[in-house]
Amino acid sequence: MKKSSFLNLFLYCNALLLTIIIGNYYYEKVTPLAHNAKTLMVNNLDELILLNEGKKDPKEFTISLLVSSYSPIVEALVEEFQKSFSAATARPYTIRLYNAESNYMLLDAMVKKLLTSSDDLIWVVGIQALQVVANNILKHPPTSPIMVSSVPWSLLQELAEETPILNKYATGWAATCDWALRIGLMHAMLPHAKKAIVVHEAGRRLTQREEMLEQLKAHGIAVTEVVIVDVATAINYVRNNLDGIDVIIVTRECGFISMIDKFINLASNYHVPLCAYDMSSIVKGAACGLCSNETVFGRYSAWFAKKLLLEGVRPSELSFVDIRDWGIHAMINENALASQCPNFPENIKFLMGHSYVIKESLSTIERELSEL
């Protein structure tokens, strides 16, 4: 009898200890984002399977954010979304970040789970995530509204034609890239460039790829495309193809934008300027780029969320919006340019007076954005 009681007590204590450990593990993964927001990171299959919805506070919104890979672009988008959405409501909300880390099988598993979840809003960022949603939406019609962000307009139209039911369950914004403007400005900043390397990931549909290549050719720039399959060897792939390269181009659609720090180090070590197409990457240390104001994209996403969550509007009642290249401007990171392109031409010094030049810190960017 005593032996049995001791065994039961031992098992109970172990179970309690395990519960505390698991509880602390998930608690540590919840990071405050705003006065009424928190986020839960889910980035592997085990976490996805173990994730228990549990009892939900009826006053709290649950927003599931789905991305193929997390990057500075997504981070900036979410940050501005929080500011705008938190200003619109005092209700608390949780953002669950489903990060597939460029793993298609994990992304597919996440989509299947989300489409059958009871979350208040499914927020899909990027064409890769939306493509998988479209592949599954007929078999698993969602009970939650879907909000789409940061998707190329032309590819969104293609998906909507292939899967018309998408218009019933989803709404949001997309963007059209003006590559003639973008490449023209890049050439003005880097007039010496005769050969460029364009990095993108195997399986990804590079937005308006043909138009971009056509514009590079029109400016006399030969292109080497590096298609990367394995994330772990991405930098080696680029390094092995740098012979005679004058500029490295990493587009917003590249899955390896999440590794931008490594690309920046590579560009600095080999003195090849890195051209990016998002503000965050240029702030971090890309030499130059043409980018839209990420804060505007966050506000657009918050506007759709307000309509869907606060006003109860159905996705089918809101048309998708094409933002186009709103507010695009040339940006030069002066310190990075000096490191990656030590002998940059004199006309770049002139351009520095007519573009948003990053001097030392993000505060410079914030001050300049306030003047827009």
Notable characteristics:
elongated; seven-stranded mixed sheet; Rossmann fold; alpha/beta; 372 residues
Give the number of helices. Answer: 16
Output the structural class: alpha/beta
Percent of residues in helices comes to: 40-55%
- What integer value in Å does the Rg equal? 23 Å
CATH superfamily of the largest domain: Response regulator
Number of DSSP E strands: 15
Which CATH-level-2 architecture of the largest domain? 3-Layer(aba) Sandwich
Strand order of the largest sheet: 1-2-4-3-5-6-7-13
What's the rounded overall pLDDT mean?
76
How many domains? The number is 2
Per the CATH scheme, the topology name of the largest domain is Rossmann fold
Strand coverage percent: 15-25%
Major sheet attributes? 8 strands, mixed
CATH class membership of the largest domain: Alpha Beta
Shape: elongated
Uncertain regions: pLDDT < 50 for 5+ in a row?
14-35, 50-55, 353-372
Give the CA-CA distance, first to last residue.
78 Å
Structure commentary:
- The protein has 2 domains: 2-176 and 295-322, Rossmann fold, CATH 3.40.50.2300; 179-293 and 326-370, Response regulator (Rossmann fold, 3-Layer(aba) Sandwich).
- The protein is built from 16 helices and 15 strands.
- The chain has helices spanning 2-28, 45-50, 72-88, 104-115, 127-136, 153-162, 166-169, 179-189, 209-218, 234-239, 260-270, 279-284, 294-310, 334-340, 346-352, 362-370, and strands at residues 30-34, 37-42, 61-67, 93-99, 121-125, 146-152, 170-175, 195-201, 222-228, 247-250, 274-276, 288-291, 321-322, 329-333, 356-358.
- Strands 1-2-4-3-5-6-7-13 form an 8-stranded mixed β-sheet, sandwiched between helices. The chain has a 7-stranded mixed β-sheet with strand order 9-8-10-11-12-14-15, sandwiched between helices.
- The chain is elongated.
- The termini are far apart.
